[in-house]
Amino acid sequence: MRRRLVCIAVLVLIALSTAETQATSVAEIVDQVTLPEYLSYMRVLTGIDSVTPTKPFQYLENRYSLGDDIHVAAQWIQGKFDSFGLDTTLDTFDPNYGPNVIGELRGRTRPDDIYIIGAHYDTYHAGDQLHAPGCDDNASGTGAVLIAGSVLSQYEFDATIRFVAFSGEEQWMVGSLAYAAAAQAAGENIRGMINYDMFLHPSFDNVDPDPDYDLDIAYEDNSQLLAQVLATQFSLHTSIDVEFHNDPNDVSDQWSFWQYGYSAAGIFENTVNEIWGGSNDAYHQLTDTMGNPDYDWDFAIEAVRGGTASLASLAGLYVIPEPASIALVGTLMSGLLIVLRRHRSKV
Ligand SMILES: [Zn+2]
């Protein structure tokens, strides 16, 4: 009887020490998603800082899918993914367009299970395509993908995580549709895709006081489990309000994954109908810059933290036992042996 009790005690302690390690690590991951690093990516994408660290300096004027600068942006994003130690590829789905840029962190125990964090990096300007800062739409999402890659690449996960910057979104999700179609044709087991597209401006320009200062997350029937994970992780790791919408017509790159049967969710400042209806007056305008006074950077970094925590949770942190836990287990095991020996000598 005593032997059974001691065994149970040891198992409970091992479980507790493992759970402690994992919980601490997800919180640690979220803490590393910082505003200064996020802003540093946004400054390059919106043309404030040079894509090259030394002379000759080069500044992005736009990231129009069918232009020249998008190829410069693609090279820069790929360079960042490389610097994080990810396996990178350029997906030239159509030579007329800038490529999709992919960075992969291969899973340790179930590498065929794939989770994706994605965002389109191309811009659209209603006037002409030569100048488009595209800050909210969608340097905000591209920056989220970059900082998630920077932080998560410092850890190992059970499943594979892919970080993807999509092109051609503004021409009706051309890049992500090509990507999801190819993934389905290859039989890839994409278990969840999280898409970021515009989340700097949670308030409405045309309503004061704003009644709905929250993040809006779109999902559809096949993505309910993913939505539940997002709801849990946002409530655990962020301070912002999140509203979920089951809307298969909320179009951005997550919509492309829905078309091919994959579970996906889109993270936005407002629903697509609200954005198209004028909730952000800088949408597709030259005023979509980092200096826009309506943009809420504290809100934005919380939005990025929630998705990063969700991704870490879904992919499963690969827990390497810490020396302290090993020592604890060793002490407990030797204690157990002493108890067993005494017990046996009595019998
Ligand atoms: Zn967009």
Q: What does this 3D model show about the protein?
A:
The chain is of the alpha/beta class and 347 residues long. It has one domain (41-320): Aminopeptidase (3-Layer(aba) Sandwich), CATH 3.40.630. The protein has ten helices and eight strands. It has helices spanning 2-31, 35-45, 69-83, 135-152, 174-185, 224-237, 253-259, 272-276, 297-315, 323-346, and strands at 87-91, 100-105, 110-120, 159-166, 189-196, 215-219, 242-246, 264-268. An eight-stranded mixed beta sheet has the order 1-2-4-3-5-8-6-7, with helices on both faces. Helix 1 packs antiparallel against helix 9, helix 4 (135-152) crosses helix 9 and helix 6 crosses helix 9 (297-315). The longest helix is centred in the N-terminal third of the chain and has 30 residues, at 2-31. Mean pLDDT is 90; it is low at 14-21. The chain binds zinc ion.
What attributes characterize this protein structure?
binds zinc ion, about 350 residues, globular, Aminopeptidase
What number is the mean pLDDT?
Answer: 90
Strand content: 15-25%
What fold name stands as the CATH topology?
A: Aminopeptidase
Query: How many separate structural domains?
Result: 1
Rg from C-alpha positions?
A: 23 Å
What is the H/E order?
A: HHHEEEHEHEEHEHEHHH
- For the terminal residues, how far apart are their CA atoms? 13 Å
Largest sheet: 8 strands, mixed
Silhouette = globular
The tally of helices reads 10
Ions and ligands: zinc ion
What ranges have pLDDT less than 50 throughout 5 or more consecutive residues? 14-21
| Helix/strand class | alpha/beta
CATH H-level superfamily: Zn peptidases
Strand order of the largest sheet: 1-2-4-3-5-8-6-7
Please state the second-level CATH architecture.
3-Layer(aba) Sandwich
Record field, number of beta strands: 8
**Share of residues in helices:** 40-55%
CATH class: Alpha Beta
